[in-house]
Design a protein that fits this description.
It comes from Novosphingobium pentaromativorans. This protein has helices at about 10-20, 30-40, 90, 95-105, 120-125, 180-195, 225-245, 260-270, 285, 295-305, 320-325, 345-360, 365-370, 375-400, and strands spanning about 1-5, 50, 55-60, 70-75, 80-85, 110, 115, 135-145, 150-170, 205-210, 215-220, 250-255, 310-315, 410-420, 420-425, 430-435, 445-455, 460-465. It has about 475 residues and is of the alpha+beta class.
């Protein structure tokens, strides 16, 4: 991590410009805020009482928009994961101001100095959030996980729950977690290994605000507690996808495998990074050996992520079973859905409504069926915006940290080649840059000279030093 020195509050000014450039909303229209206040006052009257179950949450310490809470039971050799998801659909009516605004936004957009939430704080950080020590309406997915790690929906219901504790990724200890939590994680990992899942969790390049109001730039590897908690969401989302497939409906998260040409490039990158990848070993098996704390391994993990075509959404296609073109997500090597973050993703609200109806033996609401073909476009637009915002924030921070050092030289290593451009990682700063380097190859050490660092534009320019 590197603390940013921002003369004349350049970073704050840059973030303000980014909000304008990408039309990031500042607050909500009055009619949307009013609708949220009215919705927050609703009292659940269609929810079973499950407040006796010992639910708890596990999130970043600063989070207040809590989508998920969990409770775990043992059923013979199986584990039962009671996964409570914020019942956003209880508060939001089809076509109301909250719904219309959510369709405009698509997702919650995060910046270092705040976020533009999908729903107003009265809901996202209040009445709909699964905060501790208060009763909250939820959609509870009961997921049965067998000894082999296969998950299946046992039931879905609307229920009133009460979280007993708000655990934090940064401080949670194993003895804070309920019995069965770590066992579920181990089972899910074993199932991933059998499927040949290709999930990649490289360190993130991040800009975050510290306790003093300043910013820092760095790489943040995923914490063990995050990986373990993600296994619960994975199990639930796999079970939801299977239930929708069996019913012949739904919205799925899809991603293609890297093609043969992409894998060929990855093998060249592994060789350049001095990673030992046996010729007969599948990529999925090799990547599970990688350690994100090692620079070469982390660089290769980023290369794997960039090698694919990216993830998207796809509604159920009735003709897919005949063509064997089932919705498939290469990273998890299975049909997959997004259902566990409805406070932050628009699509999850509709997926949850569909499996709730299926579990209750009711037809999926027409509004949900009508939404499925439209959501891929809306979610793709939101993902594109969020990706551009993330990259622009990093560019801004990198330019700020190097401002005033024009003419200085820096040691770096090449992490990727695209045409005649090399992507490089500076060795002594958490900065990734692009430079013209026709003869470079992944893993190659290089020396760069900084030509320009413009915090106003978030622009960096380097040249290769012979």
């Amino acid at each position: 991590m590197k603390t940013l020195v921002a003369p004349d509050r350049l970073l704050d000014q840059g973030l303000a410009r980014l909000r304008t450039r990408f039309s990031i909303p500042d607050g909500f229209p009055a009619e949307v805020s009013s609708a949220a206040e009215r919705a927050a006052a609703k009292r659940p009257d269609r929810h079973a009482d499950r407040t006796a179950l010992p639910f708890m949450t596990l999130d970043p310490a600063s989070s207040t928009d809590l989508d998920q809470a969990f409770a775990i039971e043992t059923s013979g050799a199986d584990k039962l994961l009671h996964y409570a998801i914020a019942d956003v659909a209880w508060f939001v009516e089809d076509g109301d101001p909250l719904d219309q605004e959510a369709w405009r936004r698509g997702t919650t957009t995060y910046l270092p100095d705040g976020k533009a939430s999908l729903y107003p704080p009265a809901l996202s950080e209040g009445a709909a959030s699964l905060l501790p020590d208060v009763d909250r309406p939820a959609i509870v997915l009961t997921v049965r996980i067998d000894p082999g790690g296969e998950s299946r929906l046992d039931g879905v219901e609307r229920a009133l729950i009460r979280s007993r504790a708000k655990l934090a990724y940064e401080t949670v200890r194993d003895d804070d977690l309920p019995d069965g939590f770590l066992e579920i994680f181990r089972r899910i990992e074993r199932a991933e290994d059998r499927r040949g899942a290709q999930r990649v969790d490289p360190p993130e390049q991040v800009v975050e605000k510290d306790d003093t109001g300043g910013f820092f730039l760095g790489f943040r590897p995923q914490l063990p507690s995050e990986r373990r908690n993600a296994a619960l969401s994975l199990a639930a989302n796999l079970a939801v996808a299977q239930a929708m497939l069996e019913a012949g409906t739904g919205l799925f998260r899809v991603m293609a495998l890297p093609d043969a040409k992409a894998e060929e490039r990855l093998r060249a990158s592994a060789l350049a990074l001095k990673l030992s990848w046996p010729p007969a070993m599948p990529l999925a098996q090799f990547q599970r050996r990688l350690d994100p704390r090692k620079a070469a391994d982390a660089a290769f993990m980023l290369a794997i992520r960039r090698s694919g075509s990216g993830a998207g959404y796809r509604p159920y296609d009735p003709g897919a079973s005949e063509t064997a073109d089932l919705p498939w997500h290469a990273a998890v090597a299975a049909p997959y859905a997004h259902a566990t973050a409805p406070l932050r993703r628009l699509a999850d609200r509709y997926v949850l409504r569909s499996v709730l109806a299926l579990a209750q033996g009711e037809p999926v609401p027409e509004a949900v069926l009508d939404a499925f073909p439209e959501l891929p476009r809306v979610m793709a637009r939101a993902a594109s915006r969020d990706g551009q915002v993330d990259r622009s924030v990093i560019d801004l921070a990198e330019a700020t940290i190097l401002h005033g050092r024009e003419g200085a030289t820096f040691r770096a290593v090449v992490t990727d080649i695209r045409e005649s451009k090399a992507q490089v990682q500076l060795k002594d700063l958490p900065v990734i840059a692009t430079v013209s380097a026709p003869q470079a190859f992944p893993g190659c050490p290089v020396t760069l000279r900084l030509l320009r660092a413009d915090p106003l534009e978030g622009a960096l320019s380097f040249e290769l030093v012979d």
